[in-house]
Amino acid sequence: MKCEAIGSMGKFVGLWIIWYLMKIEVDMIQFPSNRFLSLKITCNSSNVCFAISNIYAPNSIASRRNVWNFLSNHRNSFQNLPWLIGGDFNTPLNVK
After folding, report:
1. Residue 1: which residues within 8 A CB-CB, separation 6 or more?
2. Which residues does 70 contact at the CB level (< 8 Å), separation at least 6?
């Protein structure tokens, strides 16, 4: 097993991605942000490639908007690979 991580800062608790080395090859995609952990994944058995991003969005609406703008502006960084985005977006579905 191997992992990549971004450490915590203030209230931000950090991000981890863990994988099994014999099944996939992983290349880190660097972004100038501590809110994203992005990787290019290649499956060893099929040679299929895709990108995966783990996101931790801030609580404030204005800061979250910056996260969405950043993602939108950097989608070309993944060289037209299929892109899976997951994590904590801190976006409520319903506000009562």
Report:
1. 18, 19, 20, 21
2. 31, 33, 36
pLDDT, one tens digit per residue, over 17-48 is: 676 677 888 888 776 667 778 888 899 889 89
| Strands 83-88, 49-56: pairing kind | parallel
- DSSP H helices, 1-96, are 61-73
- pTM (2 decimals)? 0.71
CB 42 within 8 A of CB 48: yes
DSSP 81: -
Domains of the chain: 2-88 (3.60.10.10)
Give Cα 74 distance to the centre of its chain: 12
Round to whole Å and give the CA distance between 48 and 63.
Answer: 34
50: amino acid identity, one letter: F
Residue type, 19: W
Spatial distance between the Cα atoms of 42 and 7, rounded to a whole number of angstroms: 25
